[in-house]
Amino acid sequence: MPELPEVETIARGLRATILGKTISSATVSLKKMAVAPPGLVFQEAVLGERITAISRRGKYAVLELRSGRALVISLRMTGRLVVQQAGDPPYPYTYVELTMTDKSRLAFADVRQFGRVRLVERGEAWDSALGVEPFSGAFTPERFIAMLSGRTTPIKAFLLDQRRIAGVGNIYACEALWEAGIRPGTPAGRLTKPAIRRLHHALVNVLERAIDMRGSSVDDYVDAEGLKGGFQNVLSVYGRAGGKCPRCRGEIVRTVIAQRGTWWCSKCQK
DNA sequence: CTGAGATCCTGGGGGC
DNA sequence: TGCCCCCAGGATCTCA
Q: Can you tell me the distance from the alpha carbon of A261 to that of A216, in angstroms, rounded to the nearest whole number?
C-alpha cells in the first residue's frame, strides 16, 4: 500500500515527467473515482489546465494547476499513478486518464476502485484533518511526547491515525516500532520518554531509508514509471510471521491491532 | 473529543 | 486439477 515513501517517490517521478505540461483531454470511465466541486464536471474542468507544481502531503499526491485549483490524489491500497507515452497500450484498470498536449498520458489505475482523484478549489482546506508531516520541523521529539500523553490507544493504532501524523501506514508503523524495540499494543500514554524519543528517531529514519530505496513493493505499488521499489527486500518484521528477528533471532509474530495485521518480534519488542 | 465498527472492492490464497 | 469462499486494508462515515 502506498504510504509516505511510495507517494514521495511517485511525486518525484511525476515532477520529472509531467510537470509543466498542459492537459488536453480527460477520460473518466468510473465516475466515483474522479470528484469535482459542486456544479463542475471533472473532465471539463481540468481541460486546458497546466500542471504548475507537484508535491506530497501525507499519503496524498498533489498536482497544482494554473488556475489555482489542484488535483489531490489518494491511492489507498492498490491505486497507481503511471505516466505513459504516446503509443503505449492502455494501462490495466485505468479509470481516470489525463492526456497532455504532447500526447503523454497520466493513468490513474486501481483494481479495487478505492482510490480517488479530487479536484479542489484554490485555497480549499482539503488537508485540514491531516496531522503533522514527519519530516517537518514541527515534528519534534517533545511534540511527539506531548501528543502521546494520556492516550490509551495502542501506539500502533496512534501511528496509523492520519489526524495525528500524516503519511505513516501499516508497513512503516510496524518497522519503526521494531526499530525502536516497542511492543505495538502498548498504550501510547504509557511509553517512557526515552522510548518515545527512540520511536521518533526510528520513524523519521525508516521513512528516509525507504524513500532512498524508492519505496516498498509489498503488494501492488509501482512508481510513476511503473517500476517496483526496493525496500520490501530489507523489511525487518512486516509480513514475516514465523521468521526470525534480525536483531535477536526471536520469533516474529502476527497479531491484529486496530483491525490491521501487525508484525513484531515477541522477544525484543517490550 | 475519542474510539470502535461498518463500508467499499476484487484478486488471489486456502480449503476441499 | 478445479472450483468456491472469503479475506485484506485506508479513509470516511456513523454511532456510542
A: 17
A140-198 confidence digits (pLDDT tens): 999 999 999 988 899 999 999 999 999 999 889 999 999 999 999 999 999 999 999 99
Decide: CB of A113 under 7 A of nucleic strand B: yes
- Which nucleotides along chain B are within 7 A of a protein C-beta? 2-4, 7-11
pLDDT in tens, A41-88: 999 999 999 999 999 999 999 999 999 999 999 999 889 999 999 999
Q: In the CATH scheme, what architecture does the domain A141-265 have?
A: Orthogonal Bundle (1.10)
Show me where the domains of chain A are located.
Answer: 4-120, 141-265
| C-alpha cell read off for A110 | 486501481
Q: The CATH number of A4-120 is which of 3.20.190.10, 3.40.640.10, 2.60.40.1890, 3.10.580.10?
A: 3.20.190.10
State the pairing for strand pair A79-84/A23-28. Answer: unpaired
Query: Residue A59: what residue type?
Result: K
- Tell me how far apart the terminal alpha carbons of chain A are, to the nearest angstrom: 27
CA-CA-CA-CA torsion sign (A129, A134, A137, A140) = positive
Helix H or strand E encompassing A257: strand A252-257
Question: Which alpha helices (DSSP H) does A82-181 contain, by range?
Answer: 141-148, 155-160, 170-180
Closest residue (CA) to C1' of nucleotide B5 is A259
- Closest protein residue to B9 (Cα–C1'): A112
Coil, helix or strand for A160?
Answer: helix
Bridge-based pairing state of the strands A79-84 and A34-35: unpaired
**Rg of chain A over all Cα atoms, to the nearest angstrom:** 20
The residue among A114, A1, A117 whose CA lies nearest residue A51 is A117
Nearest-nucleotide field for A78 (CA, C1') = C9
